[in-house]
Amino acid sequence: MPALRTGTTAPLSADIKESIETKIITEREKRINKKGIHQFREATGELVRFAADPWAKADSTRPEVDEEVDVLIIGCGFGGVLAAKQLHDAGVHSIRMVDKASDFGGVWYWNRYPGLYCDTEAYIYLPLLEETGHVPSAKYVPGYEIQSHIRNIAEMENLRPRTLFQTELNRITWSQGSGRWVGNTDRGDSIRARFVVSAIGILHKVHLPGIPGIENFKGHSFHSSRWDYQYTGGNRDGTPLDRLQGKRVGLVGTGASTIQALPHLAASGAEVFVFQRTPSSVDRRDNAKTDPAWFSSFASKPGWQYDRINNFDAVFNGSNPGLDMVNDGWTHHIFALHGSEATEPFESRLEEVEFRKMEEVRRRVDSIVQDPKTAEGLKAWYKRGCKRPLFNDEYLPAFNKPNVHLVDTDGKGIERVSEQGLVTAEVEHKLDCIIYATGFDWGNDYSQRANMTVTGRDGITLTEKWAAGPSTFHGMLSRDFPNLLLFTHLQSSTSPNYTHLLHERAKHAAYIVTKCMQRGAKTVEPTQEAEDSWVKKLEDIAIKYLDFFRQCTPGYLNQEGQISATNLRSASVGMSTGDWAILTAQWRAEGNLGGLEFDRGQGKATRI
Ligand code: NDP
Fold first, then answer.
1. pTM score, two decimals?
2. Ligand 1 lined by 413 (C-beta under 6 Å)
3. Arch. (CATH architecture) of 66-205+442-607
4. pLDDT (tens digit, 9 = 90+) per residue, 393-441?
5. Can you tell me the distance from the alpha carbon of 30 to that of 34, in angstroms, rounded to the nearest whole number?
6. Domain parsing of the chain, residue ranges
7. Among 158, 302, 388, 438, which lies 20 to 30 A Cα-Cα from 534?
8. Is the CB of 198 under 6 A from ligand 1?
């Protein structure tokens, strides 16, 4: 293979490019797993302890709730809290919120591993900065600051008294007679609601590798999103993990959680073994504390935050708003393409730049990691966009410490867990502790992910209706499930700035709820034609990405390597969040609620 250490600015020669492409295909093939998204094990049955809540309040006995409200909101992460805020702003206050956690936060409640940060700039990621007056401590902020921000919004909206924590909805059932959803919880509650907002999030259902023996390990083990500080010592504020001194710790997976947690494990005095199936691309972080003078120079102008959020979305999606406000690893290489005198189409220039970017990231490994074999093992051989790009300045240097060892499984993953440790290529690695940083259920059935049966009109379940993939209008409403507002990235839009997406969903949901109430309608749902045409529109967008994702190394973005024309409906591709926001804002501005049907089956159906 020709040398790949080409300068970033020099064009890559054809033979180098070809050899990189060949290497990408070879590496991809090593990782193909016939089981696809079904290769993982759920944290249920014998493994249920991996999903238990380490932060739960000890005693949470309370009387059963039997009540009727206007809106039941499932989930108290950003999605649920923003929905409540938008409903309040629209004058709807009869709200009940439910979450299995014991506080607000969602993904930021569960994940408390050491080193947890958000990779999206805090000035755009933390919603409602203008309303709350919060000044993020840095460009990228830690998880505990994010959870505290969600709590502040919840307190501002006085949501706590209306929230049932440590409570899981097992089922929601549409009652056609009463025109209400009936929500039943694992605490015996019965909540009747005119509307349900399902803001269950996407990264909460723990999954474990699909390998035998997890339950037989005699040492200690936990999932990264249920970090056991009792065992490790330290805490999420960065206090050293002092109880790991002298222990042998296995860290499984090399996604975003591992790259942030490893530096803390490396500093703990433990012997750390990182079990890798696919290396991540890890670029510079360059975090910086917020300079108050600099922050107020732009944050004093009303509307500044939405300008910045929209600017990020525009640049990230290839538009040229004339300025790259966020100017970070998500945007700057894209923005740099504007203004060049190149004649090739933007897409092909972007492809070239991203190709070179990945080469730059691989060269970064060589420049940091001293042991050549370890450095070679840490290089990501896939196209940018196939897996989430990561940013961290401490992960790669951790491999220079004598107590940190890369166990590169060359795409095969771990074979099994023994009583003493982990087995790869028939070698047993003896361990005191195993930390599974193996991510979350992403692509399975919605109801399974929510752990809740959703039964709509005439007893049809969402699982049955969506057997061939989700079917929605605007990615939010689904026929036969009246008054159910689903917050999801499916059949709508996605973004590295996930709160942007949630905020837009919240606005849209609040509008639909209030319009329905204002016209005295009992039910609202899409017409079949509107739903079919939306599904087709989104499939037409998704199909353009099919070839790209087919050639990607397996991961959650391409259904673990099994993306196809038949499962495109479940793919995490759609329009940009900015485009979705414009489209739905225009739809709202038209004011005729096109595509919706009111009071179907209630004796006075109105189709619009
Ligand atoms: P991920 O799903 O990203 O990573 C899971 C890891 O487990 C992968 O490296 C995967 O390997 C590995 N794995 C799975 N099965 C096996 C096996 N049998 N043997 C060995 N390794 C295995 O999980 P994370 O918790 O890291 O991240 C979850 C999500 O949260 C992602 O979307 C991430 O981007 C997001 N996140 C964002 C953060 C941020 O903004 N900073 C912080 C933390 C998380 P393989 O790649 O081969 O599948």
1. 0.95
2. yes
3. 3-Layer(bba) Sandwich (3.50)
4. 999 999 999 999 999 999 999 999 999 999 999 999 999 999 999 999 8
5. 12
6. 14-43+211-285+348-436, 66-205+442-607
7. 388
8. no
